[in-house]
Amino acid sequence: MYKNMWCVFVAILGVAAGMDRSHLPPTCSSNIYCHGPLLDTVQMAGLYNDSKTFVDMKLKLSANITMDHFHEMMARTGSHPTKADIQEFVNQNFDPEGSEFEDWRPTDWKDNPAFLQNIKDPLLHEWAADLNRLWLQLGRKMKPDVKANQDLYSIIYVDNPVIVPGGRFREFYYWDSYWIIKGLLLSEMRATARGMVSNFMDIVERIGFIPNGGRIYYAMRSQPPLLIPMVKLILDDMDDIEFLRQHIHTLDREYDYWMTNHTIEVNHNGHRYTLARYYDQSQGPRPESYKEDVDVARHFDTNDKKEELYAELKAAAESGWDFSSRWFILNGTNKG
């Protein structure tokens, strides 16, 4: 069954031109992190070079109290707050991005894993050793407060520590984690690798699929479905058939999500094919790239066209190729 999944997975972006998207939900239900006037006001003020900065911040108080403070600011300023007003509001109601993590050093990290001993060239050996030390910089463990007060955070709580891509990407990402897990196993960090896969199993049981990344604003899109290959990595490295038995029903659940929500029937030359696609089913710009998306959408003269653009951007992000020339139209063709 799973083998067939890979046979039909052709990477296309799936948004029907002219489709009415007004009935679709926002990227998540949060009227702070995903949609609504507060998000629009803060993001369009351009307080930060990267829109992701704001939506990664922690609420100091409950969402309801924060919204009350926002409405008070808007009333006080006649719904035309200055950039300084908005910055003051954010400073008073949000903690900085990264507040969800505590210091953590991977307990299974090794200074000299076996693969380093096979690299004879001195320069390559030092480069690989530096690469191995990056695990110490990229490890993240969530504070207990995240589990206790999930409504104050945009991050999706997981029990086990994770390795993140780094930079602005402070949380786990789905398909990035496949390559990370391959590297962890090569570095003999089996407990960390297994813990990350266990996190994904838990997320599938809670949400029904694995989001693009570990934030609630990613909750309406996924990324290339690599959970089954992740389990294969664990199985091949540890020969742990019990791990597979324990999670086989969860793998089935994720597979069903993709086959139910991301496939279409295509007729070509008298033959019917099941084609999988990257496809977004939400309204609005990406919260983590809000201002950037809105600015690009100004080139379109109708809301329907803007929504179509937002959908294409989110579908491209779901593909993991956000962004490359793979999705460029060249001379009216799809050659890229």
From TrEMBL:
Keywords: Glycosidase, Hydrolase, Signal. One of its GO terms (biological process) is trehalose catabolic process. GO terms for molecular function: alpha,alpha-trehalase activity. Residues 1-18 form the signal peptide. Its EC number is 3.2.1.28. It catalyses: alpha,alpha-trehalose + H2O = alpha-D-glucose + beta-D-glucose. InterPro entries: 6-hairpin_glycosidase_sf, 6hp_glycosidase-like_sf, Glyco_hydro_37, Glyco_hydro_37_CS. Belongs to the glycosyl hydrolase 37 family. This is Trehalase. The lineage of its organism: Eukaryota, Metazoa, Ecdysozoa, Arthropoda, Hexapoda.
